[in-house]
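pls design
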């Protein structure tokens, strides 16, 4: 009952924050019945926008804020679509092959600026559970399971509207610590090729090491994408509140469209892209994930202060503390995504 009460309060908060943040966005009014509580709130549309769709080519499905407290990706996707519109106006011969459709990931989390409400939306894409949620009445679903069902339906609708031989999933994220700028492909060749075109270090095997990410579900064809080929890459743009994270996410989106063949290789190069290329030269182009420190809700995990992404760590180094005592690095390497926020299911990652 306590969680229902908390959730009700969060939803009330949603409506207010939405009106400030999404001035001018199309909205709809929804009523949700969570257990014994009937909740009224105003929701924005999940779809941020779209571009193209007149010429054949890949279908690019892009997501921002799959974690609700990561607004940079949503902002960036809106800006990328504006850039494309402006380019089309500036140059009548501008061609866009295929179609781009951009979505907000965790809509309820995003509207209440929370990473997630009940479950991490990037850890629950397990086929059996998703199929079970799809069978249920939407009004009986709470928080993230409802998000999963709505995303599934939205993706299916776009695939039906624009049948393509190739479907690209792009998932934009930010982190709580500084300096986390990298791409994470799923393990198909096409995804790795795409990740390498985003001008940032590529982290291999990370998608495989975490439980139930959206992109693994997508790469496995579970959105019923066959016979289309699927490529899937996540982009980590930096710290949540850093304005540069928005610019980097715009660059990643445009670079992804270029790599997928939607736009000509010579168009829409920006100063931000040059900055990102220069910045990335200080890091290795490809690293492999070697260790993930998973945490449970009762671990009371606390990262020691001062760790940055790609910072070198030594085997045995005291990285964090939890209810069992000090948490030591199990190997030499570089730390990624040290957790400096309350919510999260992974304490840190180590790459080599
Ligand atoms: Zn995230």
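designed seq:
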């Amino acid at each position: 009952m306590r969680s229902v009460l908390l959730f009700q309060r969060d939803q009330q908060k949603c409506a207010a924050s939405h009106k400030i943040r999404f001035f001018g966005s199309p909205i709809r009014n929804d009523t949700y019945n969570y257990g014994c509580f009937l909740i009224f709130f105003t929701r924005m549309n999940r779809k941020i926008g779209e571009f193209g769709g007149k010429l054949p080519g890949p279908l690019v499905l892009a997501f921002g804020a799959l974690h609700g407290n990561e607004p940079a990706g949503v902002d960036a996707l809106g800006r990328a679509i504006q850039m494309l519109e402006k380019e089309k106006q500036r140059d009548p011969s501008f061609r866009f092959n295929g179609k781009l459709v951009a979505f907000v990931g965790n809509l309820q989390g995003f509207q209440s600026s929370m990473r997630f409400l009940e479950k991490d939306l990037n850890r629950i894409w397990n086929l059996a559970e998703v199929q079970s949620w799809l069978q249920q009445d939407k009004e009986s679903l709470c928080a993230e399971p409802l998000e999963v069902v709505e995303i599934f339906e939205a993706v299916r609708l776009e695939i039906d509207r624009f049948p393509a031989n190739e479907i690209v999933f792009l998932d934009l994220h930010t982190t709580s610590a500084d300096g986390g700028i990298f791409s994470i492909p799923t393990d198909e060749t096409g995804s790795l090729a795409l990740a390498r075109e985003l001008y940032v270090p590529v982290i291999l095997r990370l998608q495989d090491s975490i439980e139930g990410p959206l992109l693994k579900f997508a790469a496995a064809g579970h959105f019923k994408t066959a016979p289309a080929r699927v490529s899937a890459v996540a982009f980590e743009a930096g710290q949540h509140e850093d304005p540069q994270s928005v610019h980097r996410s715009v660059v990643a989106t445009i670079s992804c469209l270029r790599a997928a063949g939607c736009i000509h290789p010579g168009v829409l190069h920006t100063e931000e892209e040059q900055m990102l290329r220069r910045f990335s030269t200080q890091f290795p182009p490809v690293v492999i994930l070697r260790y993930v420190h998973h945490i449970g809700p009762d671990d009371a995990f606390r990262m020691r202060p001062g760790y940055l992404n790609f910072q070198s760590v030594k085997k045995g180094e005291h990285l964090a503390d939890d209810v069992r005592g000090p948490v030591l690095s199990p190997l030499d390497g570089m730390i990624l995504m040290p957790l400096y926020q309350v919510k999260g299911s992974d304490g840190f990652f180590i790459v080599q």
